[in-house]
């Protein structure tokens, strides 16, 4: 005979079973939904998800070619850190998906802001001094990281947007920061500095450090361009400011351009037209005469010079000491053997 308790248990058993099955089913469905939500959250956080919308393809391609591709995902720069911030961003992302299907998206619009905090998250320390000129600590007080490093994550050209069919009509380069007076020096490559600095009024040495001793302003010898091409300065520049005389160079105070021409292309020696030989040459011991040009020619090395003495009918100039005919110097001849008359020629 069944007790009252047993009878009550039989009555409640079917209902309890259904409740338990419903709880299990709900838990499974909840777990699946949670897994799907978590999986979708992880999947949509990947940079590879961005080009699912074709208008993002140029940006994704440029990101792959940047230095950030191996260091940061798109969300690292475009979404604040933390799970709360990422979840809060999902409605914005859903709106972008909605716009993809309902609007004709055109770029660039230069409206994406990247707060400095996202940059500092990966770059907590930056080099305060770059080279001998650039002061990072000073520049970071003047603007945001994005102002100077806008293309760090990806350099998307207008041509790439045009090829993808998403270039905004009339689009151009981003606006210059307020208050700037930019310009580019003739031939100078375009750099981000010109957004705020007037290159045409600046000296090269304000940004560049020469790899050699100080030789004056860079533009004296270099021409601005993609490469800092050397262009020899005019002859008005002191050669000694860049060049040193070789060890065996004749002692002289004359200007280098007196004997050297073709500066920059060839320092070939070209004998000057001046007859002041003593400015560069020192006569050897027991040398005869002071007018070098009587025996020497600029076309013949001085070491190979020979005396071209006038011939006489009676004897050679080698027959007697020079003083016999030149008692008062070599400019005049007065033969002591012939009553002071100079010898006659042939």
How are the secondary structure elements laid out?
Blueprint: H1 4-45, H2 57-64, H3 74-78, H4 83-102, H5 116-122, E1 129-130, E2 134-135, H6 136-139, H7 145-148, H8 158-163, E3 222-223, E4 229-230
Antiparallel strand pairs: 1-2, 3-4
Would you kindly provide a brief summary of this structure?
Helices cover 28% and strands 2% of the residues. With 346 residues, it is an all-alpha fold. Among the domains are: 28-173, Multiheme cytochrome fold (Orthogonal Bundle); 176-231, no CATH class.
Based on CA atoms alone, the radius of gyration comes out at 45 Å
Largest sheet features = 2 strands, antiparallel
Q: Would you tell me which CATH topology of the domain at 28-173 applies?
A: Multiheme cytochrome fold
Q: What letter string, H or E per element, gives the SSE order? A: HHHHHEEHHHEE
* Broad shape: rod-shaped
Mean pLDDT: 75
Please, how many helices? Answer: 8
CATH architecture of the domain at 28-173: Orthogonal Bundle
Extract low-pLDDT stretches: none
Helix content: 25-40%
Distance between the termini: 174 Å
Give the CATH level 1 class of the domain at 28-173. Mainly Alpha
The counted number of beta strands is: 4
Judged by helices, strands and strand pairing, the structural class is mainly alpha
CATH superfamily of the domain at 28-173: Di-heme elbow motif domain
Strand sequence of the main sheet, in spatial order? 1-2
How much of the sequence is in beta strands? under 5%
């Amino acid at each position: 005979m069944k007790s009252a308790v047993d009878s009550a248990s039989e009555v409640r058993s079917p209902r309890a079973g259904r409740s338990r099955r419903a709880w299990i089913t709900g838990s499974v469905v909840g777990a699946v939904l949670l897994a799907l939500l978590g999986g979708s959250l992880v999947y949509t956080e990947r940079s590879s998800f961005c080009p699912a919308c074709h208008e993002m393809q140029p940006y994704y391609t440029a990101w792959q070619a940047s230095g950030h591709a191996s260091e940061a995902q798109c969300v690292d720069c475009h979404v604040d850190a933390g799970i709360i911030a990422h979840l809060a961003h999902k409605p914005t992302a859903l709106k972008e998906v909605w716009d993809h299907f309902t609007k004709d998206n055109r770029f660039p619009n230069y409206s994406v802001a990247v707060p400095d905090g996202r940059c500092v998250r990966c770059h907590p320390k930056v080099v305060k001094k770059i080279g001998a000129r650039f002061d990072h600590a000073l520049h970071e007080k003047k603007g945001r990281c994005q102002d100077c490093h806008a293309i760090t994550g990806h350099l998307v050209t207008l041509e790439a947007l045009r090829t993808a069919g998403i270039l905004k009509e009339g689009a151009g380069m981003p606006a210059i920061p307020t208050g700037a007076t930019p310009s580019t020096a003739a031939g100078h490559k375009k750099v981000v500095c010109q957004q705020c600095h007037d290159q045409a009024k600046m000296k090269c040495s304000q940004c560049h450090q020469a790899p050699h001793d100080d030789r004056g302003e860079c533009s004296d010898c270099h021409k601005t361009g993609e490469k800092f091409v050397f262009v020899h300065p005019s002859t008005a520049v002191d050669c000694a400011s860049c060049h040193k005389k070789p060890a065996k160079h004749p002692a002289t105070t004359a200007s280098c351009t007196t004997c050297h021409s073709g500066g920059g292309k060839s320092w070939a020696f070209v004998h000057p037209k001046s007859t002041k030989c003593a400015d560069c040459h020192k006569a050897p011991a027991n040398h005869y005469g002071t007018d070098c040009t009587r025996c020497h020619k600029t076309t013949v090395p001085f070491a190979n010079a020979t005396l071209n003495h006038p011939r006489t009918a009676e004897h050679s100039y080698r027959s007697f000491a020079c003083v016999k005919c030149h008692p008062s110097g070599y400019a005049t001849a007065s033969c002591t053997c012939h009553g002071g008359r100079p010898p006659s020629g042939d």
